[in-house]
Amino acid sequence: MALQASLDPTAIDAGCCSIGGLAAPASRAGTGADPRAYVVVGDDGTARLDAVVETLDCPSCVPSIEGVLGRLDGMLAARVNAGQRRIHLEWDPARLDLDRILGALDGLGHRIAAYDAARLGGREVDEVGRGLLRALAVAGFAFANVMLVSVAVWAGLAQDMGPGTRAFLHWVSALIALPAIVYAGRPFFGSALAALRSGTTNMDVPIAIGVSLATGMSLLETTRNGPHVFFDAALGLLFFLLIGRFLDRSLRGRAFAAAQNLLALRAVSAVVIGRDRRTEVRAIDAVRPGDLVAVAVGETVPVDGRVAAGRSDVDAALVTGESLPQPVAPGTVVHAGTVNLTAPIEVETAAAGSGTLLAEIAAMMDRAGQAKARYVRLADRISRIYAPVIHALALAAFAGWMALGGADWRHALMISVAVLIVTCPCALGLAVPAVQVGAVGRLLKRGAYVKSGDALERLARADTVVFDKTGTLTLGRPRLEGIDDADCVGDSGEVLAVAAALARRSTHPLARALAAAAGDGPAADDVREEPGCGLEAVLSGVRVRLGRRDWVGGATAATPHAGPEIWLRRGDAPAVRLRFVDAPRPDAAEVVAGLQARGLRVVLLSGDGRAVVDDLADRIGIDERRAECLPGDKIAVLERLAAEGRRVAMVGDGLNDAPALAAAFVSLSPATAADVSQTAADLVFRGDSLAPVLEALDVARRADMLVRQNVGLALAYNLVAVPLAVAGLVTPLIAAVVMSASSLAVTGNALRVQRGR
Amino acid sequence: MVALVYLIPAALLLGGFGLACFLWALRTGQFEDLDGAAWRALHDAHDDRLNDEERR
């Protein structure tokens, strides 16, 4: 068995998986629900479970997970989807226990968040994408074969093909094209009908009219043995437009899958303590007000309520934006989403599920998000002008040839069909998604995840950037800044060593920062942690306390410090102060300067105190700042900016930022942010660096420029082709060449978004 | 021109075969996870040519 592991090529990859796994507990997000609540046992006795594997950072983990799970006795199927980070498990519950499966996953360094596959939905979304792909395949097949026949006809026009042969080839084209057009055209016909029924037009209306007129006329010409048919043009149109439609769809599908994963992670379970002190794991929906919930150290509080027993510190950073843990004791109110840090507590539920602060914030987000829904995509804005112009042109060509040109109605109709085909918005249908897929792919490689194409369009038009402070401009992790030893108790190196010896025994953020500043070293024995106060130990016969000023005692007056601080006291000596700051992200000043250089107005909004905010704003060069903002205040500021006509890009991470993120014109959020904020944000970026914000802005602006170039290119083609079409000179050959050439030109131009700088 | 009578059906048949293959691949979920398959191929457990002896 051991030999097998060493021969297994995936054993090499196990290293990278476990690093991801080890890093994961450091994130502040919740760990998801107890998977047991989501196991579905089928009629055949097979247990099934769908889950999100959020730690799946490298696709190479796939074979190792599937291999290890597949070797478990009783495992029937273990299938990982690397693209969506999901796993589907099927096993025989008589032979295999879920705990063993979870244990095996844990051994590989993976945690899973189970979800209810039926309730999350998503099957319909996949089905739409697959339907488009099927339509695309059929259109491609038919287009290729009809083109084959058409080339023969065009060659025959130049040489001397008999009318009999030509008629035969036209009939062949019609037989291939008709069913294909009916099948592949459904997405467009459906959408055009829906638009017309509601009394508006969209891009699909001229497409649907063009395709049906071209098909109908071609069929008529075929039966009358006419010289020109447009089957190839109609099919080519559908083929190119379907490519664009599919690219757009897959972009949305990926964003949808990511949003679903976030939903699954947000679902939590609670350990409820019954009357007889027996504990029971329940899904959060089944927890009622009044239930007593046990919260272990390191767990996320699942409900809103009051602490009933136990003293601890809770990290409320994701809820209130406050970066330091708050001490809690019986009677203190705690909110769902906060993390319990130092000791186990019991919480009496006041509200669960939809009654919690979390749910209220989600509701506030929904209201605020309506501004975003009003945004009209560039392609749709152009089509509002474009579609009526095309219709007018085609109609004018028909009327002109009938009245002035003296043509019969068939000829006049053929000419207006040619106008419709030549002007059909291939470039808009194909080039916009092609540019956006390229831009999103490029940003993904740089660690920024964009959720939709229109988010890029909005980002390109932003002229104001509003930053949250904690966790966004700063890392949200305190760092030791200095040691104030007013009474010269000892040299600072020694003070740090003693403090770190105690701190290594605690998970409190300040203790961790202290341990990190001191580097490796011994940890003190028998350290007692007093929740909400600090740490105490006896070192070489002397009692040492590290913690709050009033608990440690013996502190002398010190100059006020804007950030957090803890005090160290050895025996009866005067206490020494250790100062901390929440360090800004390493490139925060650089990025802010970069944004200002690009002509953007930069604003800082924070829930923190004035002194801390001023200190940070001065250091990284932001003039406009506001401290002590509540979530409602942030929305008010954003609304005032919007009323001034500014298009605001909001960058934030806390749960308290989520409504503001939803209210902003476009929003960005770091990957360490609260799940809700990541769901609300248009773009999520990874890592300690703030540079992806700048990169995203540059790529968005570049994509915007390329989209505009593409629209220009398409219009330039029309400038040449439309007069020819109106003059009646566009044969099916010219229509096909113009359409393909313009489609290829805009796609080629779109690829440039991947290159450069 | 008589050649058309069998050349056109031949072209359609070949193209139709390709289309059928694609639709089959789509229906059996071959495009669901494009990244995973590449890595899965590296794993011995899925290589049917290896017998149990070699795998150890």
Task: Give a quick set of tags describing it.
heterodimer, A: 757 residues, alpha+beta, Alpha-Beta Plaits, Calcium-transporting ATPase, cytoplasmic transduction domain A, 5 domains, 7-stranded mixed β-sheet, 6-stranded antiparallel β-sheet, 27 strands, elongated, disordered N terminus, B: 56 residues, mainly alpha, 61% helix, rod-shaped
Largest sheet of chain A: 7 strands, mixed
Oligomer: heterodimer
Structural class of chain B: mainly alpha
Distance between the termini of chain B: 64 Å
The total beta strand count of chain A reads 27
- β-strand percent of chain B reads under 5%
Radius of gyration of chain B: 20 Å
Content-based structural category of chain A: alpha+beta
Give the largest chain-chain interface (CB within 8 Å). A-B, 35 and 28 residues
Strand content of chain A: 15-25%
Mean pLDDT over all positions of chain B: 76
Query: Helical content of chain A, roughly?
Result: 40-55%
Q: Mind summarizing the main beta sheet of chain B? A: none
| Anisotropy-based shape of chain B | rod-shaped
Brief summary of the model shown:
The complex is a heterodimer of chains A (757) and B (56). Chain A is of the alpha+beta class. Helices cover 52% and strands 18% of the residues of chain A.
